[in-house]
Design goal:
The complex is a heterodimer. Chain A is an all-alpha fold. Chain A has one domain: ABC transporter involved in vitamin B12 uptake, BtuC, CATH 1.10.3470. Helices cover 82% and strands 0% of the residues of chain A. The relative contact order of chain A is 0.16. Chain B has eight helices and ten strands. Chain B is α/β, with parallel strands linked by helices. Chain B has a single domain, classed as P-loop containing nucleotide triphosphate hydrolases (Rossmann fold). Chain B has a six-stranded mixed sheet, sandwiched between helices. The chains are: A mainly alpha, B alpha/beta. Chains A and B meet through α8, α9 and α12 of A and α2 of B. The structure holds adenosine-5'-triphosphate and magnesium ion. The site of magnesium ion has 4 residues of chain B, from α1.
Chain lengths: 289, 252
């Protein structure tokens, strides 16, 4: 494997961007999960899909050398802005803006895909992730965005943490809620856009939430959630890339299945430990009586 | 500290979906004052406090904090707040007591900064003040309701605010800790000159500790010195039995 990586630049690109995405995905995902906003990731990834479909359409019909991923990126950023505005419009049903955008974007994607001559191998790669899709330029962009996301999260950590914990109190302490939320949604859109190549549009949100769900089982503090989530994410990304290379599996799918198995494993082990430690007074025993 | 009133409400009226909750409220809190706010359930106490904090916008009237109109007020770290439903947070949230109390400093520190040694020291101090030093690294979800409330009190104290607004802060806190808590408020009030607004149903505490008492039931129908016994009694009766405000008005 090591030899292959040294030998084939495309594998280097895939591994390096996998590691970067496996880092920023769960970092952003932690805030999504604790705010119970995982649906934002799903929504924006479907918006990105409609962008990719538009890109494929332009590529096929207007005959221009355009990379659909970048169209997807523009779409998901625009989608983020749109979701934010719609959220303010539906003041009392803020979460309603997400299914609305998600459904519209999916509809648009399907229409554009049918216009762009239907499902082909390229589209399959964008949907489920692929090893060979990452060029050197793509890798550079992933690195740039990973750096941006990391810097923003470090700089705004306090504010994101407080808003996630208790929005009202955060606002009364003078934290500019709308600005922070806006920046955050943009970061989500960027992470989704750069994860498309490797993990695939349909699996991006899983990449952002499954490792966090596992991390939540073990973490004793908010900071620890990040440590565990990134750890689980890296294990699934690296193992997933190797397995998908050797067995010619869809990369994103392999990664996400591994992340799900890890989560199940963590829950199982935790249950066993609690069970082994369970004193006669544990709630579990009481219920059995 | 300047001599401007800390809080100034002028003719504030607030409605939830056209249902009036507060009508023509006039109120001032002067520097160093300790104001008790009482009134039956649903009388608009929490609503009034949310208006002062800028969380709700009144349909009519003007609110000033530290002499500035609320819309231009930026210095929120001077205001500490413990909400009535402080434990309405998601109890599964993975944060330690230390992390939660730290939040009290975030507004003051400003954007882009991380906690330094000095800030951490303050957090430990605030945790000690509410007697939770043994729980510093515990997950907040694993504490009892009363302990959680003390964490939120520590969070409001840690930034050393000039104005502290407490909406039934001691609900679920045991008698010993309540006594300690009021001792602490007294200290802050007397020694540090902190201005206080306290919503409480605990009449004993209200009458023995506060400088001024405000009785609310849609209207602020009494706002004066708690030592004025007859008025005080009226207010308390209303507070305890939840008489309709009109009955009280007839008595005047
Ligand atoms: N979000 C809301 N939407 C509509 N009406 C509300 C809302 N919150 C409060 N109210 C109404 O406003 C009135 C005042 O409520 P508020 O919470 O200010 O009372 P309170 O004096 O704090 O009561 P308590 O002693 O129970 O805390 C109540 O009649 C309540 O039904
Ligand atoms: Mg209330």
């Amino acid at each position: 494997m090591i030899q292959d990586i040294i030998q084939f630049p495309f594998l280097q690109n895939a591994f390096l961007s996998g590691i970067l995405i496996g880092f920023i995905g769960p970092v952003i995902g932690v805030f999504l999960v604790v705010r119970r906003l995982s649906l934002i990731a799903d929504t924006l990834s479907h918006v990105a899909l409609s962008g990719v479909a538009a890109g494929l359409f332009l590529q096929n019909k207007v005959v221009q050398p355009i990379n659909p991923v970048y169209v997807g990126m523009v779409f998901s950023i625009a989608g983020a802005l749109f979701v934010e505005n719609l959220r303010r419009w539906f003041r009392y049903y803020q979460e309603l803006s997400l299914p609305i955008v998600l459904a519209s974007a999916t509809g648009l994607s399907v229409v554009l895909i049918s216009l762009a001559d239907g499902v082909n191998r390229d589209l399959f790669g964008y949907l489920f992730g692929s090893l060979i899709a990452v060029s050197r330029t793509d890798l550079m962009i992933v690195a740039l965005i990973a750096l941006l996301v990391l810097v923003m999260v470090v700089l705004l950590y306090k504010e994101l943490f407080y808003l996630a914990f208790e929005e009202e109190a955060a606002v009364t302490s003078g934290i500019p809620k709308n600005t922070i939320h806006f920046v955050f949604v943009l970061l989500v859109a960027l992470v989704i856009a750069v994860s498309m190549n490797i993990v695939g549009i349909l699996l991006v949100s899983a990449m952002m939430t499954l490792p966090v769900a596992a991390g939540l089982q073990l973490a004793k503090s908010f900071k620890q959630v990040f440590v565990y989530a990134v750890l689980f994410s890296q294990v699934s990304v690296l193992t997933g890339l190797v397995l998908s290379y050797y067995f010619d599996l869809a990369t994103g799918g392999t990664i996400v299945v591994l992340a799900a198995l890890l989560l199940a494993g963590v829950i199982f082990v935790k249950k066993m430990v609690t069970w082994a430690k369970g004193s006669p007074r544990s709630p579990r025993k009481i219920r059995q009586v | 500290m300047s001599q401007e009133p800390i809080i100034e409400l002028r003719d504030v009226t607030f409605r939830y979906d056209n249902r009036p909750v507060l009508e023509h409220i006039n109120m001032t809190l002067n520097p160093g004052e300790f104001l008790g706010l009482v009134g039956p359930n649903g009388s608009g106490k929490s609503t009034l406090i949310k208006i002062i904090l800028g969380l709700l916008k009144p349909q009519e009237g003007e609110v000033r904090l530290f002499g500035q109109p609320l819309s231009r007020f930026k210095d929120w770290s001077r205001v500490g707040y413990v909400s009535q439903k402080a434990n309405s947070f998601n109890t599964g949230f993975p944060a330690t007591v230390f992390e939660v109390v730290s939040m009290g400093l975030f507004g003051k520190m400003g954007l882009f900064k991380w906690m330094g040694k000095k800030e951490k020291e303050k957090v430990y101090q605030a945790i000690e003040t509410v007697g939770l030093s043994d729980y510093t690294r515990q997950n907040i979800g694993q504490l009892s309701g009363g302990q959680q409330q003390r964490v939120f009190i520590a969070r409001a104290l840690v930034s050393e605010p000039d104005l502290l607004i407490l909406d039934e802060p001691t609900v679920g806190v045991d008698a010993y800790s309540v006594a300690q808590f009021y001792q602490l408020l007294d200290n802050m009030h007397r020694k540090m000159g902190v201005s206080l607004v306290l919503v409480s149903h605990d009449i004993g505490v209200i009458t023995s500790r506060v400088d001024r008492l405000a009785c609310l039931n849609k209207k602020l129908f009494f706002h004066g010195d708690p030592e004025d016994f007859s008025e005080q009694q009226e207010c308390i009766l209303n507070q305890m039995y939840g008489h309709d405000v009109h009955v009280i008005e007839h008595n005047h």
